[in-house]
Amino acid sequence: MARLRDGYAEFTEREAEILAIGPDNFEKFVSYWGENNIPYPGLPDPNKQVSKIYKQEVNLFKLGRMPLNTVVDRVGMIRFIYYGYSMSDIPDNETLLQVIDELNASSK
Amino acid sequence: MLIHGQLAPDFELEDTTGKLFRLSSYRGKKVVLLAFLRGFM
Q1: Could A17 and B31 be called an inter-chain contact, meaning their C-beta atoms sit closer than 8 Å?
Q2: What is the band of A88 on the pLDDT scale with cuts at 50, 70, 90?
Q3: Which helix H or strand E contains A34, and what residues bound it?
Q4: Domains in chain A, start-ordered, CATH in brackets?
Q5: Which residues on chain B place their C-beta less than 8 Å from a C-beta of chain A?
Q6: Which residues in chain A are closer than 8 Å to B5, comparing Cβ atoms?
């Protein structure tokens, strides 16, 4: 979260948007987004409806979900998808930006 | 699991201000990174 926040300008420069989807409720999103100055939209999914469609995994101890990151191109296709195998297993920004660069280059 | 090259399932969710976000509304416009969070601890 902090990593994406700190690198957000690099995403917007590439005309990419970040949508963060989480299992927490509205109130928790409001306080987390405010406390951490997150610049991109945070979408509470307390019923896990979208999380289920995307097959986000529940962690073994049921304390939360396993991270999942996916890059969707302008046609709506998944061009990168990474299911984390631990709570902190999240692709670095460079990996994500490289995917976006390749998509931008191929769409010109 | 969903895989590379598959159509990303469309969805609608509201942000905390009530603004509606629909994935398909970005089609033809922007690349989107969907970051599914683990939940705030």
Answers
A1: yes
A2: confident
A3: helix A26-36
A4: 2-106 (3.40.30.10)
A5: 1-11, 13-16, 19, 21, 23-24, 26-41
A6: 77-79
ipTM of the complex: 0.95
Q: Indicate the residue of A71, A83, A104 with minimum beta-carbon distance to B1.
A: A83
Searching chain B, which residue's CA lies closest to the CA of residue A86?
Answer: B38
For A33-80, the pLDDT digits (tens) are 999 999 999 999 999 999 999 999 987 776 778 999 999 999 999 999
* Rounded (5°) CA angle B36-B17-A93: 30
Cα–Cα dist B22/B12, whole Å? 4
Task: Tell me how far apart the terminal alpha carbons of chain A are, to the nearest angstrom.
Answer: 30
The domain segmentation of chain B, as residue ranges, is 12-41
Across chain A, what does the average pLDDT equal? 93
Q: Which amino acid is residue A48, in one-letter code? A: K
